[in-house]
Design goal:
The complex is a heterodimer. Chain A is built from 15 helices and 15 strands. Chain A is of the alpha/beta class. A 7-stranded parallel beta sheet of chain A has the order 5-3-1-6-7-8-9, with helices on both faces. The relative contact order of chain A is 0.12. By secondary structure, chain B is mainly α. In chain B, 55% of the residues lie in helices and 2% in strands. Chain B is elongated and about 75 Å long. Classes of the chains: A alpha/beta, B mainly alpha. Chains A and B meet through helix 6, helix 7, strand 15, helix 11 and helix 12 of A and strand 1, helix 1 and helix 2 of B.
């Protein structure tokens, strides 16, 4: 089957695809939003994990370089295939999701190297892509600092899918529960949450902490040891990666969502917590303040004892909790204006001219390291 | 006292009341055992687990862990342990 000459095709690539991954979710959202206005395209990945769905295809350079197509490269870490992608004879775009600084991975040289490579590649890409997208103003500002121009913001998810659900009141005989959802990783600082629980347990005895998410096994063993050291291992639950239904149940059965993460490019779990009508306590680092836009409780300290005292004081005041939840509902409603299919469609309709009316794209001559002598010096 | 939290649009009177409660909670916590310092090995943890925990703590938090052996000393201890194993136990 051949693609009609005048029809724009938007293909997307990310090295990994997984079921509960925000980037895979965004790729699917872009694909579905564009399909609704007649723009086709495929989603490609090299490592496709279970749960990624049938819409993700294994990387195929021939299918990705058909005429009239734009290749959107989602960038969140070092990409071993970047040279190949940039040499394809099609127009290219980047969607930047931010890269965790390598300093957080001192314990894992491979992870640190992947993060370092991702940041180096980002610098190289600034003059090799035709369209630049970021999924938050924070990510856009990082790109601007690296010399990217004409950066547009692209929705990460469909906010209409996050309707505020009424939370079941927790039975008084059950212990209070605090929740955080996110990959187990040093930059998300689950260790500080465990230290906070140590103090919170003294103010609200029996409080439980649920740290939902899989991830770094070394960090996970450190978290388990830390809970043992503090004698609260029975109250710290690390269920790993769980189904969407089980995650919803965790949101519904908790009293607070606490996020002490030090680096986020957006943080979708905050949106999920707002939809679950759960009061949020968070540090305003990186893109977290932008995602919440004043909603929830902003913590101005990272001292676990002080954080525990704030959580205890706020949760003890039902009127204040009501006001916090009202603010979060307003924020969730306002996200519907920016995180929607219409924004994606607007962004890509304008690109039709860039991709289709442009002269046939020729594979750019990629600058490669050459060890052969140049003609000028050959005879020297 | 520093402002420990911000809730947008909250009545200043309510804010002051909450700050008062936070101060009370902190007073209660000042009597809590300093378990968070984690400088002593708890009886329920063996020496190897404790050493691993402290090495990881230093890597993840950058915190100084007093008494943690240097890489050279750890290497010497391991070498001595291996020699003992070859001999077939402590002699």
């Amino acid at each position: 089957m051949t693609t009609p000459r005048s029809r724009l095709v938007v293909n997307q690539f990310h090295y990994h695809a997984a079921g509960a991954d925000a980037i895979t979710g965004q790729m699917r959202f872009i694909q579905a939003s564009l399909k609704a206005i007649g723009i086709g395209g495929e989603v490609f990945a090299v490592e496709v994990k279970k749960g990624a769905g049938d819409v993700v295809a294994l990387w195929d350079p021939e299918r990705a370089s058909k005429p009239n197509s734009l290749l959107l490269i989602h960038h969140s870490q070092g990409n071993p295939l970047l040279d190949e992608l940039l040499s394809l004879p099609v127009k290219k775009g980047i969607v930047y999701h931010n890269i965790t600084p390598p300093d957080f991975f001192a314990h894992d040289p491979l992870l640190a190297q992947t993060a370092r490579l991702g940041r180096e590649q980002l610098k190289e890409m600034s003059d090799q892509v035709d369209v630049v997208f970021a999924d938050s103003a924070y990510n856009a500002s990082e790109l601007k600092g690296l010399g990217f121009r004409d950066i547009r913001q692209l929705p990460l998810f469909d906010a209409r899918a996050f309707q505020t659900k009424k939370r079941e009141p927790r039975r008084p005989e059950l212990p209070p529960r605090v929740l955080f959802v996110g990959r187990l990783s040093p930059h998300k600082d689950q260790a500080r949450l465990i230290e906070t629980l140590y103090y919170l347990d003294r103010l609200r005895p029996g409080t439980e902490l649920f740290l939902v998410g899989g991830g770094d096994p070394v960090y996970q063993s450190y978290l388990k040891d830390l809970a043992r050291m503090l004698n609260i291992s029975g109250q710290v639950h690390l269920p790993g990666t769980i189904s969407a239904e089980a995650r919803d149940l965790c949101y519904r059965s908790s009293q607070a969502f606490v996020c002490l993460s030090q680096h986020e490019g957006f943080c979708i779990p905050l949106v999920e917590a707002m939809a679950a009508d759960l009061p949020i306590f968070s540090l305003p680092d990186t893109a977290i303040a932008e995602t919440l836009d004043g909603a929830g409780v902003q913590l101005n300290t990272n001292d676990p004892a002080k954080i525990a005292a704030v959580i205890d004081a706020v949760l003890g005041d039902t009127k204040t909790v009501g006001e916090i939840l009202a603010g979060q509902r307003r924020r969730l409603k306002s996200l519907e204006r920016t995180q929607c299919a219409a924004r994606i469609q607007e962004a890509f309709v304008g690109l039709r001219r860039l991709v289709i009316d442009a002269k046939p794209a020729v594979a750019p001559s990629r600058r490669r390291r050459s060890y052969a002598p140049s003609p000028a010096t050959a005879g020297a | 006292m520093e402002r420990l939290f911000t809730i947008a649009g909250l009545d200043p009177k309510v804010q002051r009341g909450l700050a008062q409660r936070v101060r009370q909670s902190l007073k209660t916590l000042s009597h809590a055992p300093a378990g968070i310092l984690l400088v002593r090995r708890p009886a329920r943890m063996n020496r190897l687990s404790y050493l691993r925990f402290r090495i990881l703590k230093r890597q993840f938090t950058g915190a100084r862990t007093p008494g943690l052996p240097s890489a050279v000393k750890t290497g010497r201890l391991l070498a001595r342990g291996l020699r003992r194993m070859k001999r077939g136990g402590k002699k």
